[in-house]
Specification:
32% strand; 8 strands; 169 residues; eight-stranded mixed beta sheet; globular; Aminopeptidase; 5 helices; alpha+beta
Length: 169
């Protein structure tokens, strides 16, 4: 599965599944994120990626755990990842996470890539998606709401959202 994705500003990216061979590039892309972007993504300071962090991010079977990578064809660098992972003990549920490189934020990439990973989750039979963001991450909250997610509430600084996939088919 490869897609060409054109953003509202005319930029075109290649979107494909993230693979184990992307390990070094994924680590480099995460480390290119500003400290604030890493904090908002991981909900904790992340000065470096451990082997266990990378193992977890690359533990993909493209069914219960999927990740789509957006690549800038001009540089060959990954600039964004949208992923879902099945929620243990909650049949039909998956958790969504999205990361967009700082230079690409605010250009519609997060929403467009999220729409593609939502479609993958629907194809794989998931009934709903959860997303949890830091309460201060207003950009992520706007993106989720624009994508049809409902805000369920905020607790201990984290905001929870839900998207029912069956009702949006």
């Amino acid at each position: 599965m490869r897609h060409l994705l054109t953003l509202p500003d005319g930029a075109t990216l290649i979107v494909r599944p993230l693979e184990a061979r992307d390990r070094d590039a994924l680590e480099a892309a995460i480390m290119r994120l500003s400290a604030t972007s890493r904090l908002l993504r991981f909900a904790a300071p992340k000065p470096r990626m451990t082997k266990a962090d990378l193992d977890r991010l690359l533990d993909l079977d493209h069914h219960d755990r999927e990740a789509l990578l957006a690549v800038d064809p001009a540089t060959g660098e990954g600039v964004a990842v949208a992923r879902y992972a099945a929620v243990p003990g909650e049949p039909g549920a998956a958790e969504l996470a999205v990361t967009v490189g700082d230079a690409w934020q605010g250009r519609g990439l997060g929403g467009a890539l999220t729409a593609l990973v939502i479609e993958r989750a629907r194809e794989e039979g998931f009934g709903h998606l959860h997303a949890i963001t830091m309460g201060e991450n207003r950009r992520a909250a706007r993106m989720l709401r624009a994508g049809g997610f409902r805000h369920l509430g905020t607790s201990t600084g984290l905001s929870e959202f839900r998207l029912d996939l069956a009702s949006r088919a």
